[in-house]
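Repro:
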Amino acid sequence: MELNPPVTFDALGWDPWLRLGGAAIAGLLLGLDREVRGHGAGLRTHAILCFSAALITLSALALYYQLGGTESQADPLRVIEGTAAMAGVIGGALIVFAKGEIKNLTTAAHIWLAASIGIAFGAGLYPIAVIGTLGSVLLLTLFGWIELRAFRKSNGQG
């Protein structure tokens, strides 16, 4: 059996650590909102998903270049596509329709978002990953607070 050559730790450098560490931190930040609101998919779920998406992306890109890059038949974009689809399946499994209401829709979108940010970190697209993380946290916290206040007032609870 012929395998690709192994990559040793001394050959890695700091870049993979930054990619995976950044994804883990981004996932924790995204999961914090769900954790504070008492949803099942919280800190650990988001951190694991974001980290695993980065790990899959990083592995796909590294293997692609090991196999010859553009000269090979390998396509790392298919791995990234599969990762995004997997996050959609997980998110879709969270959505529940009960008593005339849809529940966990934001959490499902959150899951897909965590995978997207993990893919960006895994691909080494640091500016996109950081902007995505900060923008997401802003959307989830600030606009979640605004949404809560607006609906509370419109329902006569404010």
